[in-house]
Design goal:
There is one protein chain. By secondary structure, the protein is an alpha+beta fold. It has two domains: 38 residues; 70 residues, no CATH class. It is 32% helix and 24% strand. It is built from three helices and five strands. The C terminus is likely disordered.
């Protein structure tokens, strides 16, 4: 064999080994191998805290598309329990007006049951 042919053969073999190594190393990244794995890395969290302070908490429920507004009673000190005051249906986003559902204070809810 001539030296030109040996060089072409060696380059061809090196190319095939490089392609084989690339396919072998990237096999874990192929879509078919990921199909059997749970998509945990791409899952969104159930809740997103939009903003919080010692007096209030704004939370989005990503599964029900609902926004929750919690705040503490005015007379209370920071760090006391937060109460649900309103919710907003986020499926209505884009409409000219969003209507919040006001949650009545506990006394009103108790009186409404009686």
């Amino acid at each position: 064999m001539s030296s030109k042919r040996k060089t072409i053969g060696a380059l061809g073999l090196a190319f095939l080994l490089g392609v084989g190594a690339t396919l072998f190393l990237s096999h874990g990244n192929l879509p078919s191998s990921r199909a059997a794995e749970p998509e945990k890395a791409h899952m969104n969290p159930r809740y997103t805290i939009v903003k919080t302070d010692t007096n209030f908490l704004l939370v989005t429920d990503n599964q029900t598309n609902k926004f929750y507004y919690y705040t503490m009673d005015e007379e209370k000190e920071p760090g006391t329990e937060l109460k649900l005051h309103a919710t907003v249906d986020l499926t209505q986003v884009g409409k000219p007006v969003l209507k919040a559902e006001i949650v009545p204070p506990e006394e009103k809810r108790v009186n409404a049951r009686n």
